[in-house]
Design brief:
heterodimer; A: 257 residues; alpha+beta; Alpha-Beta Plaits; four-stranded mixed beta sheet; 11 strands; B: 394 residues; mainly alpha; 69% helix
Chain lengths: 257, 394
């Protein structure tokens, strides 16, 4: 983990966990809680070392309900107009491809145009989120190393160091990054690192009613992601970018970018 | 027309907002002016282009004034401006952007030392002639040295030449680097080309030369001093040659991608015939490249002299500086219009009063000229334009 000098990152991990917990806690309790959670973070980091988390999206199971977008927005306080995750709706016709997206947790997707529905040859919902690339362009271009590859396969942004230049937003081929209008820093899906550190699944995985979103450790043979990975029917987005995504799509249509 | 057989303009939700806005348009513009103006000064100091003797100092001062404001747009743009210096303190060396602080600051140091050497004799002279507080200030500027010997002048000359010589690659790095930042973003079809650094560099040179002529003409006009026509003619010859190289490279990039007809053209084609048609095809190419190219060809190849030469050169230079400004806009904003979905384009709206709006951009762009005005009140920039009239004149 050359991109992850452990001392600095440990401090950051402490920060992430401490800030999550203290969102609900009284300020005076912060030092006490912070210390307790910092210990937990160190444990989490130690536990994540040598593990290889991955995310599987099963296109055939997604019904486009948008619960994942809602859960993500609530869990991570994602500002309106920005997205850590969204669901795209693809409709293939003989004339071309129609695409729109469920990005606003409040409004959801509207009904499909009648004419388009009649022309449809195929349709699919495609959830999108950060791919936590092994060879992440955002990590490479960050001028201060605020974006980094963390143990376990997470790509995270250190809120103590991000200068808000936006270079990572430009470099990401998947459009999953944004400059948070409230924090003025780069923001994106963390696979709910704060939840995973406590042994929970990411919020979107937890609420998905059809198990279209799966999360787990590739090193654990019985985990759903390991099974999907071994079956070798998955595809990653934009493989030509050579980013080595850790989000694996099952049943992905050729037209999806 | 939308890219990749899309029935609708589908833009990824996070791409609806263009993150790199006008500040990032004017940042490479200003660094370009730095590099271009410096090159003119270096042409005299290093390559002994005699015609530029009278403007070598002026070019150096202008380059310095632009340099003072080159980093400001970036600072205004940063989401966390108080952390700006982290680029120096904790640079992440896999990122091209991490060297910005070092390249920019070291270049400014080279520029400042060179400027100081050029004006050292003047500082000493002022320290000798003044009394009281002004003397303290002048003496501080001359670092306490109170005499200027021929031997010192010879050393200064050698060091100035040396600094001008290393300043050229330095200035070119400062600007080529900006092109490198854009050219290496593989996720953006309109940016990703190895030609980008050299295109940025050539456009930097032409914009710097053209801006220098505009500023020169303005200063001479305002102070009722004669124009140096041989210099103008020579400057226009350089502008013309470099502008041709610049245009050839810019066209090469587009025609290459067009003829290659690969995955890049699938989005660039609709971009150029769609949202960028006005500012790129009509603005940057047809009007702002075609017309100055014709004027410059006439100016250089004909025997034009005197007022016609002055007016035509200024008109061409004005169009060239606008061409480069349009080019920066078309690259920076145009590239971000392409959604990473590759199936649509995001709109760009000019904001007037926002932090990164038109007003801020105009204020920053005016900065170097204000700095030049202030400096011209302190140090003599042209030989025939002393700050204080000489005793014999008064």
């Amino acid at each position: 983990m050359s991109d992850c000098p452990s001392e600095g990152r440990r401090g950051f991990l402490k920060g992430v966990l401490a800030s999550t917990a203290t969102a609900a806690a009284v300020t005076t309790l912060k030092p006490v809680l912070g210390t307790a959670l910092a210990d937990q973070a160190e444990t989490a980091e130690a536990t994540f070392e040598g593990r290889e988390f991955a995310f599987v999206v099963d296109i055939d199971k997604c019904i486009g309900c948008g619960k994942c977008v809602q859960a993500c927005t609530l869990e991570n306080q994602v500002p309106k107009g920005s997205n850590r995750t969204w669901v795209e709706r693809y409709v293939g016709t003989e004339e071309g491809v129609y695409v729109d997206a469920l990005a606003d947790a409040d409004t959801g997707l509207g009904p499909l145009d009648d004419a388009l529905r009649d022309q449809a040859k195929w349709a699919a919902f495609v959830p999108k989120l950060c791919n936590h690339c092994e060879n992440a362009p955002c990590v490479q271009v960050c001028p201060v190393g605020a974006t980094f590859n963390a143990p376990g396969g997470f790509v995270l942004v250190d809120p103590e160091h991000c200068i808000g230049c936006g270079y990572c937003v430009q470099a990401c081929p998947y459009g999953v990054r944004f400059l948070n209008p409230e924090t003025h820093m780069a923001d994106k899906c963390t696979w709910c690192y704060h939840r995973v550190a406590k042994g929970l699944d990411p919020a979107c995985v937890t609420v998905c009613p059809t198990q279209a979103r799966l999360f787990g450790d590739l090193k654990q043979e019985d985990s759903p992601v390991a099974k999907a990975f071994v079956a070798d029917q998955w595809r990653e987005l934009k493989p030509e970018m050579h980013t080595h995504c850790r989000v694996y799509y099952l049943g992905l249509h050729r037209e999806v970018v | 027309m939308y890219p990749n057989q899309s029935l609708v303009n589908f833009v990824f939700p996070n791409n609806l907002h263009i993150e790199w806005s006008l500040m990032i348009v004017i940042y490479p513009y200003i660094t370009g002016l730095v590099a271009g103006a410096f090159a003119v000064s270096a042409l005299y100091h290093v390559f002994h282009v005699k015609e530029f003797e009278g403007i070598a100092r002026f070019a150096l001062v202008a380059s310095f004034c632009f340099g003072l404001f080159a980093g400001l747009p970036l600072l205004v743009h940063l989401g966390q401006p108080l952390r700006a210096f982290n680029i120096f303190f904790t640079p992440h060396l896999t990122s091209a952007m991490s060297i910005f602080g070092y390249v920019y600051s070291s270049y400014m140091i080279v520029l400042m030392i060179e400027l100081w050497l050029v004006y050292r004799e003047y500082f000493i002279q002022q320290a000798q002639e003044s009394t009281g507080w002004p003397r303290v200030i002048w003496k501080t500027l001359s670092l306490g040295v109170m005499e200027y010997t021929p031997q010192a002048a010879a050393v200064d000359h050698r060091v100035t030449t040396f600094l001008a010589a290393i300043g050229i690659p330095w200035a070119f790095t400062l600007h080529g680097y900006v092109g490198f930042i854009f050219g290496t973003v593989k996720a953006n079809a309109w940016w990703a080309t190895p030609l980008q650094p050299i295109i940025f560099l050539m456009s930097a040179l032409v914009s710097g030369i053209a801006m220098l002529l505009l500023l020169y003409s303005f200063v001479r006009w305002r102070t009722h001093r004669p124009y140096d026509f041989p210099m103008i003619k020579r400057l226009m010859t350089y502008l013309w040659s470099l502008f041709i190289i610049d245009l050839v490279l810019e066209m090469l990039e587009v025609f290459y991608v067009m003829y290659e007809h690969g995955q890049h053209w699938a989005v660039i084609g609709p971009l150029l015939s769609g949202p960028l048609h006005g500012s790129y095809v009509v603005g940057q190419l047809m009007i702002l490249s075609g017309i100055p190219l014709l004027i410059l060809s006439y100016v250089v190849l004909s025997k034009s002299w005197g007022r016609p030469l002055l007016y035509l050169s200024n008109l061409a230079s004005l169009l060239v500086v606008l061409q480069v400004l349009f080019m920066r806009y078309n690259v920076v904003i145009g590239g971000q219009m392409i959604s990473k979905s590759e199936r649509g384009f995001a709109p760009f709206h000019f904001e007037i009063l926002a932090k990164e709006g038109v007003l801020s951009a105009l204020l920053i762009l005016a900065g170097p000229f204000v700095a030049y005005y202030v400096l011209s009140k302190i140090i003599p920039i042209f030989d025939d334009l002393p700050v204080k009239p000489k005793a014999s004149e008064s």
